[in-house]
């Protein structure tokens, strides 16, 4: 009897880039830009080209150090999570935006004390961190002990780039910031024990941010910081009883593909 052969799976490669100015991050260089993608083998070159371009022409300054890591993705370890619903709030100034952020965080299930602590924690940063701070969603106290590094969410991308682009375009959205933020926010929201996320960009000219949660989706806040400010950040609000080691492991290690779930888009492994 002829042996049945498994259908061949396409190889996917994870590409991670981080760039700094004044030397490597680990030797005190200032973080300029970081990006990660999971691409088909044939798209590696184009992706590397884009990353190089990005690191050398970034708003935060020109990088003089760049680290690249390429790794085969084990498709048997991949999980799929839906993209958060996208909707937009109104804010014209940073102050207004921060009030909106607090309101949105409370609507998502964070206490007002914790919501205000989250905003204050980002405002108090002397410079941007590479990762996110974890705050207790009830008390607002910081619960990770990772200092200036924070928790870095990694190993995620869109399940189907074309479907994702179409889903964004249908809402009048385009560009790296939104795509990356939606992917990251969707993975963050899917973490066990997480109530909501607060984020605003560290790119000096990009004043937009969002509050993300499974409950209310991705709530974009058009203005959340002053223009020309190079400090941004992320806060993940967690329930008090959360298993923080498991959550951190999920964020850092688990490969997650985000699906643009509307009808007609890829929703499962196919
Ligand atoms: N994991 C955890 N925290 C991160 C990560 C990550 N992979 N990447 C960035 N951060 C933290 C870090 O502290 C940065 O300083 C901060 O988030 C901001 O990162 O139009 O561009 O990449 O709807 O500058 C949101 C609005 C844009 C998009 C967010 O963030 C829109 C943005 P940035
Ligand atoms: Mg940035």
Walk me through what this model shows.
- By secondary structure, the protein is an alpha/beta fold.
- It is 27% helix and 26% strand.
- The protein has six helices and twelve strands.
- It has helices at residues 44-56, 94-108, 112-123, 161-169, 176-189, 244-253; strands at 12-21, 30-40, 65-72, 79-82, 86-88, 133-136, 156-158, 194-200, 209-213, 217-221, 233-238, 256-259.
- The protein has a six-stranded mixed sheet with strand order 5-10-9-8-11-6, with helices on both faces. A three-stranded antiparallel sheet has the order 2-1-3, covered by helices on one side.
- A hairpin with an 8-residue loop joins β1 (12-21) and β2 (30-40).
- α2 packs across α3 (112-123).
- It is globular and about 55 Å long.
- Residues 262-270 have low confidence and may be disordered.
- Pimeloyl-AMP binds next to α5, β9 and β11.
